[in-house]
């Protein structure tokens, strides 16, 4: 059976309770936005992550949850492809709150990340990005959409169920983590801590559709060598000791990678039903030592996103990585300078692709629950990556994305989330918990 049978009276009372808490839901989002949880670099000091997590821990504990607020150790995430060297969690705790079931049902995880991207350029915002403001039925502020609106929705859903005394058969877990915007290591630390369930919902801004697939990503840095020389002097051939422009040679490599990307887009065997084939975006380029010198090297950093159809059996991008390396080798072999002075590739952080079957219980239940909450939904995919992949791949918790707001306004100036979205999301989450975990009628 896909979902447990729940009487209509119980579901009706839950929907009414969430609607009754609409103003409280808005207030919670505004309060969460007020905490500075801007995404960090490895060496950045803590901001106000602990204060936000302590607020949620106290709320959920008062609602009846068994709470665990902890700072992971470096060992918890060491050795992962997600983890940059030197990453620590001092001052950045993770939180899991468990509403224990009475037994005989499936467990469900609600998850969200508390970090947000920078608000810069702040002077272009209509209102203070760190003081959420309600205008025209929307809540404006940094993180309202991505994803403090989603966090508030899942917290209110859990609190509504608890306040009504609903006896879920399976456990309901509410987990909030750091570091999604920078590394993905917050969710990784949660998995290492033992946070897992029979299924999960990550309340990212999916426009209330169900993300059942996401792409992984690798970050290659391609360094192309040149030979320095005076830019104002006519140079002899390079075999005679003349200068070689590393930027021009980098263009040769970049064109080869563009051709590889074009090939990916035309291959039917790489097509995925919900997300596009792999693509490469040059995100950084640096070269040159002096304004009148030929550059000695050129470094190009790429972000390469790939779907599950282009991943290896574990979801990682080893297939894509080898194709990139081969394209560079082949191009270098055809260029006399590059053949003798081959480019190098350095691979940094990686996140895996993931997907959950359309016919799985969690997908069907969430899509149906959203419709019953007044917001018809459907399975879709996320073109980038989110923490659901971590719980799916490493935590044995098949997890989908489902949350309020349009991802198109995330990370932008005047970011916002519609109030109706967060209320309807909270309703759908509450119904999903009833139907997935089951309800004890006693």
Written overview of the protein:
- This protein is α/β, with parallel strands linked by helices and 442 residues long.
- It has 2 domains: 8-214 and 353-437, Aminopeptidase; 216-351, 2-Layer Sandwich (Alpha-Beta Plaits).
- It is 34% helix and 20% strand.
- A 6-stranded mixed beta sheet has the order 1-2-6-3-7-15, with helices on both faces.
- The radius of gyration is 24 Å and the shape is elongated.
Provide the gyration radius in Å: 24 Å
Q: List the secondary-structure elements in sequence, H or E.
A: HHHEHEEEEHEHEEEHEEHHEEHEHEEH
- Largest beta-sheet details: 6 strands, mixed
The fourth-level CATH homologous superfamily of the largest domain is Zn peptidases
Share of residues in strands: 15-25%
Helix content: 25-40%
Structural class: alpha/beta
Query: In CATH terms, what is the fold-level topology of the largest domain?
Result: Aminopeptidase
CA-based shape: elongated
CA(first)-CA(last) distance: 21 Å
Assign the CATH class of the largest domain.
Alpha Beta
Number of helices: 12
For the largest beta sheet, what order do the strands appear in spatially? Answer: 1-2-6-3-7-15
Residue windows where pLDDT falls under 50 for at least 5 positions: none
Question: How many beta strands in the DSSP annotation?
Answer: 16
Number of domains: 2
CATH architecture group name of the largest domain: 3-Layer(aba) Sandwich
């Amino acid at each position: 059976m896909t979902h447990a049978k729940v009487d209509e009276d119980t579901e009706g009372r839950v929907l009414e309770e969430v609607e009754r808490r609409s103003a409280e839901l808005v207030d919670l989002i505004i309060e969460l936005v007020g905490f500075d949880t801007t995404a960090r670099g490895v060496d950045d000091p803590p901001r106000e992550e602990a204060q936000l997590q302590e607020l949620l821990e106290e709320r959920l504990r008062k609602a009846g949850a068994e709470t665990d607020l902890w700072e992971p150790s470096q060992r918890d995430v060491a050795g992962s492809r997600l983890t940059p060297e030197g990453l620590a969690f001092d001052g950045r705790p993770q939180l899991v709150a468990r509403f224990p079931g009475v037994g005989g049902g499936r467990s469900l995880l609600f998850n969200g990340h508390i970090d947000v991207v920078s608000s810069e350029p702040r002077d272009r915002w209509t209102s203070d990005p760190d003081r959420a403001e309600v205008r025209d039925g929307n809540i404006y502020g940094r993180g309202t959409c991505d994803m403090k609106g989603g966090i508030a929705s899942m917290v209110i859903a859990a609190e509504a169920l608890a306040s009504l005394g609903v006896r879920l058969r399976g456990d309901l877990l509410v987990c909030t983590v750091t570091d999604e915007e920078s590394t993905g290591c917050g969710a990784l630390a949660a998995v290492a801590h033992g946070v897992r369930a029979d299924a999960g919902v990550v309340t990212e801004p999916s426009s209330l559709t169900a993300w059942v697939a996401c792409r992984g990503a690798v970050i290659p840095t391609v360094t192309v060598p040149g030979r320095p020389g005076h830019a104002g002097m006519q140079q002899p051939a390079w075999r005679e000791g003349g200068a070689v422009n590393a930027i021009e040679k980098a263009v040769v490599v970049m064109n080869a990678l563009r051709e590889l990307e074009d090939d990916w887009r035309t291959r039917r065997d790489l097509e995925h039903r919900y997300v596009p084939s792999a693509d490469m975006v040059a995100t950084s380029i640096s070269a040159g030592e002096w304004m009148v010198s030929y550059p000695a090297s050129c470094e190009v950093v790429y972000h390469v996103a790939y779907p599950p159809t282009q991943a290896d059996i574990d979801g990682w991008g080893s297939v894509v990585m080898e194709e990139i390396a081969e394209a560079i080798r082949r191009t270098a072999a055809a260029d006399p300078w590059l053949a003798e002075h081959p480019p190098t590739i350095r691979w940094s952080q990686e996140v895996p692709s993931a997907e959950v079957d359309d016919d799985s219980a969690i997908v069907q239940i969430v899509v149906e629950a959203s419709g019953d909450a007044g917001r018809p939904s459907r399975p879709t995919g996320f073109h980038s990556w989110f923490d659901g992949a971590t719980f799916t791949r490493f935590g044995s918790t098949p997890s989908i994305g489902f949350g309020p707001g349009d991802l198109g306004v995330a990370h932008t100036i005047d970011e916002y989330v519609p109030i109706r979205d967060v209320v309807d999301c909270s309703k759908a989450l509450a119904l999903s918990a009833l139907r997935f975990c089951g309800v004890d009628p006693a």
